[in-house]
Design goal:
heterodimer, A: alpha/beta, Rossmann fold, six-stranded mixed β-sheet, four-stranded antiparallel β-sheet, 9 helices, globular, B: mainly alpha, MetI-like fold, flat
Chain lengths: 247, 256
């Protein structure tokens, strides 16, 4: 049984079809990367899996249990599926430590001392423990994104959803954040990643899905989908990215 | 240069007014020092009532409107009655002049002589002010809540916070910070609107001043009341300006 299973997922924004009959899956310890042009639906797909937005048809399962099942109601799904966003979405009125410990303390009922010790431990691993008392607006974009990753990790999720997490970073800070994700892969974290960094996708993905106009057009190992795609639309997309110098 | 021009213009204006043929009459009617002095103790005692009502109603207004705005911000069908209530409340009480609410509550309700209901004009006058201002202040809070980016809700949801926890820990602290300048300006407005208490018989500063005027046919007691309101409101208005400026600098810094 796969960790995440998506069956025939369909979603509209008003009249606009944004996801059309999506079938996909993510195995245990697998890293799946979703690529495709802007507006192809890849971020929406990720948000559906994280139950952040509703969908119209189809099913999404976590370990065989539908995500709208009472067994995953309330904070059960958020505990098991962590999300990191493009623009970090840290809480600006809370310092780094409070940002990270908010969910453990308020949602999962963990004592402040325990939660903070855990947070510091994770910050230490990423080499940013000295930022614990800072407020988000004092941090660089790369530091903010690493704090956001720690915030997702302290809940010990089984799956991590990463939504274009380097798209808003200063270019020279992208590498630092991506190396954190490589480390997570090495530790066996199951991840679904939406990214425009094709080099990173090739490097970290076990499997790649190419989405265009609300559909999955192609799926396979990164070397094949990114190196020798079957679908003409995938080839065109990759060609443009190569021309833009991003592969 | 600007100091010189200001002094010259204001000096000429003062000279023009005081040299007018009517000035002595004006001075005696409005600026008679002996009348101001005589009425001052009563007016000051009344003003103390104004200030206490101001503080108490301000606290109630801030808390009640925050609650209303929070209820209104909750999503989902279960909270629809709260949202409808908030909309009706705001439409109703923002549309009625405060002076009418003051008469309705302050004179109307005590006249009913309902058992177990306080009949003090002071109490109902305060209620009228609170009811009227809550309608505005709820809208102010709402604008602050709307100004918090949706991505903050998404982050809270992804972390498993309930709707209420999201409001309490993520949205409202930012929303309140957004609207502090607007709230302070409402507080300045309320500081003067407490004078409406005088029309329902509460012996506040304005009422005391009018009693004196009725007795002496001299308006200097009203000037005494005006001076007291100015002494209270100018520092408050300056404070509001200062907070607003600081808030703008903070926003500017964030975008840089």
């Amino acid at each position: 049984m796969r960790r995440i299973e998506v069956q025939d997922l369909t979603k509209y924004y008003g009249d606009k079809l944004v996801l059309h009959g999506i079938d996909m899956g993510v195995g245990e310890h697998e890293v799946v990367v979703l690529i495709g042009p802007s507006g192809s639906g890849k971020s929406t797909l990720l948000r559906c899996i994280g139950r952040l937005v509703p969908y119209d048809y189809g099913k999404i399962f976590l370990d065989g249990v539908p995500i709208d099942d009472p067994a995953l109601a309330g904070n059960e799904l958020p505990k098991r599926v962590g999300v990191v966003f493009q623009s970090y979405n840290l809480f600006p009125h809370l310092d780094v430590l409070d940002n990270i410990t908010l969910a453990p303390r308020k949602v999962h009922g963990i004592d402040r001392d325990v939660a903070e010790a855990r947070a510091l431990e994770e910050l230490e691993k990423l080499g940013i423990a000295d930022l614990a008392d800072s407020y988000p607006d004092k941090l660089s974009s790369g530091q903010q994104q690493r704090v956001a990753i720690v915030r997702a990790l302290v809940n010990d999720p089984e799956v991590l959803l990463l939504d274009e997490i380097t798209a808003a970073l200063d270019p020279e800070l992208v590498g630092g954040v991506l190396s954190v994700i490589r480390d997570l892969k090495a530790q066996g974290m199951t991840m679904v990643i939406v990214t425009h960094e094709m080099g990173f996708a090739r490097d970290v993905a076990d499997r790649v899905y190419f989405l265009d106009q609300a559909r999955i057009l192609e799926e396979g190992p990164p070397d094949r989908v990114l190196g020798d795609p079957e679908h003409p639309r995938t080839r065109q997309f990759l060609q443009r990215i190569i021309e833009a110098g991003r592969l | 240069m600007s100091i010189v021009s200001t002094v010259v213009v204001f000096g000429l204006a003062a000279l023009w007014i005081t040299s007018s043929a009517h000035w002595p009459r004006l001075r005696d009617q409005f600026f008679s020092w002996s009348h101001i002095e005589e009425s001052f103790p009563d007016v000051l005692r009344g003003f103390w009532i104004n200030m206490r009502v101001w503080i108490i109603s301000m606290i109630l207004i801030m808390l009640i409107s925050l609650l209303f705005a929070a209820l209104r911000a909750l999503r989902g069908p279960w909270f629809a009655p709260f949202r409808v209530f908030a909309v009706l409340y705001i439409d109703l009480f923002r549309g009625i002049p405060a002076v009418l609410l003051m008469l309705l509550f302050g004179l109307g309700i005590p006249a009913l002589q309902l058992p177990g209901v306080p009949d003090a004009a002071l109490f109902w006058g305060t209620v009228a002010l609170v009811v009227s201002y809550v309608a505005y202040t709820t809208e102010v809070y709402r604008s602050g809540i709307d100004a918090v980016h949706d991505s903050q809700r998404a982050a809270a949801k992804a972390l498993g916070l309930t709707q209420w926890q999201t409001l309490r820990h993520a949205i409202l602290p930012q929303a309140v910070r957004n609207v502090v300048p607007a709230l302070l300006n409402l507080a300045v407005a309320l500081q003067k609107d407490v004078a409406l208490l005088s029309i329902i018989g509460v012996r506040d500063a304005v009422r005391e001043a009018r009693i004196f005027t009725a007795r002496t046919f001299n308006y200097s007691s009203l000037i005494a009341a005006a001076i007291l309101f100015l002494i209270a409101s100018i520092p408050m208005a300056r404070f509001a300006d200062w907070v607003t400026r600081r808030d703008q600098e903070r926003r500017l810094q964030r975008t840089m």
